[in-house]
Amino acid sequence: xxxxxxxxxxxxxxxIFGLVVILHRNAVVGxxxxxxxxxxxxxxxxxxxxxxxxxxxxxxxxxxxxxxxxFVIMLLNLQHQREAPTRPIQQFLGYLGSAxxxxxxxxxxxxxxxxxxxxxxxxxxxxxIGIRLFESYIFPFxxxxxxxxxxxxxxxxxxxxxxxxR
Amino acid sequence: xxxxxxxxxALSLLKIVIVLGGMLSVTPVMAWVERxxxxxxxxxxxxxxxxxxxxxxxxxxxxxxxxxxxxxxxEAHKWLYSLAPMFGLIPALTTISVVPWGRPFVLRxxxxxxxxxxxxxxxxxxxFALASMSVYGIVTAGWASGNKYSLFGGxxxxxxxxxxxxxxxxxxxSVLMVAGSLRLTDVVWKQTGxxxxxxxxxxxxxxxxxxxxxxxxxxxxxxAFAETNRLPFDFAEAEAELVAGYHTEYSSMKFALFFMSxxxxxxxxxxxxxxxxxxxxxxxxxNEPATFRGFILSAIAFVIKVGFLMLVFVWVRWTIPRLxxxxxxxxxxxxxxxxxxxxxxLVAWFIAERWI
Lengths: 166, 356
Fold this sequence. Notes:
The complex is a heterodimer of chains A (about 170) and B (about 350).
Chain A: H1 2-23, H2 27-47, H3 51-76, H4 88-111, H5 126-135, H6 138-164
Chain B: H1 6-41, H2 57-67, H3 78-94, E1 105-106, E2 112-113, H4 123-144, H5 148-179, H6 184-190, E3 194-197, E4 201-204, H7 214-227, H8 252-277, H9 292-317, H10 325-352
Antiparallel strand pairs in B: 1-2, 3-4
Helix pairs in contact in B: 1-8, 1-9, 2-8, 3-4, 3-8, 4-5, 5-7, 5-10, 7-8, 7-10, 8-9
């Protein structure tokens, strides 16, 4: 009963703040609304018995990545731009594409909503995740590390090039 | 899961009241300690008019905050300007909920009373999560003031905070490796034993005395200073440089909220250092029994340790000058982060060799 109320409240929070991200004209308000939406998602993870993932969601996504977004937005100080007038055919195709995507999403979620979990008790604590990460999923883990390293090296190169080209 | 009945709810509410009351009373006490302590260090008197030794100065401050005019600058963003102090206050008030502040003891009807508001499996991760939220209060306040200098203060401070969050989390990992769990209660229980040196000296098994974890104590303490924006890392305020940094444009109650959230964050960090490294509620050389008396003594020990650390916070603030910003960022990434990583490797080696 309580989890029902909590779920619907935070689902409403997530959806409403998601709408604010898209519809509000100020980028900083949008970024902060995204943070609120991510918080609501973290609550969903807790309701699904995964507090570890919820904490990681807040630490990594809401706490580090969104701060980076906010830095960029605040330092660039964008004024809300004049939107170029869109032609009716562009608007129609846009709505048609997003409606098709939404319908396909709902359909497939409803069709495959019953998933088979592996047998055994459901444990989602740090120890299990750590063991799985370093035993079963070690290869994707290392590939993601290399991907992040590539991103860091790319960022360093791009900023260095800007500094040395006088 | 056992059914939760009314007594459990009542006990939880009691715990919340105690912890919240403690956190809210940190501000007036620390304001007095800061002002008299800084006066002592600077060889002057400090507030001594309002009550004996200026003890009621906090009341005078509260009256000022309530009666002062609340000015909202023209260029400020209407909503975010008012919401920013609340963003700062929420992490400060909520992180203390996973810190154990006393010894669990058995009540008269056989129930176990655990003096921790929320004993979650991933306790320390919640603290890191909420600490990373405290960046938003500062950066939003800096931007929403509509003042370039506030924006500078906010951005500089948030860059510093996210850099030192890494050193904070990595240095805490070595403690968690030794304790074998993410729960803070387990971390404290592991520190209730003794290290026996040379078969005669019995040291309490606090992590700060452990051969591998004293380094992470140092790194964590420095990162705690950086996280709470206290000197020598106080670029958010930078009193001589940016007028008052990110809270320049705030007056009366909103400024009071920033003021409160800074002291509460300081208290939470002190509580965290105590729990991770100084043995939490453990009284040295005394085996606390699981009775009400043991609980009260352990709670008093916890408060004494946290109070001592907050004194150190004040002491360092008025002793050490502020670092230059690029030096601060450089040592955050190039000194403390490698130190924390090396410490993890060292502790992992010690655990593998079964020395710990």
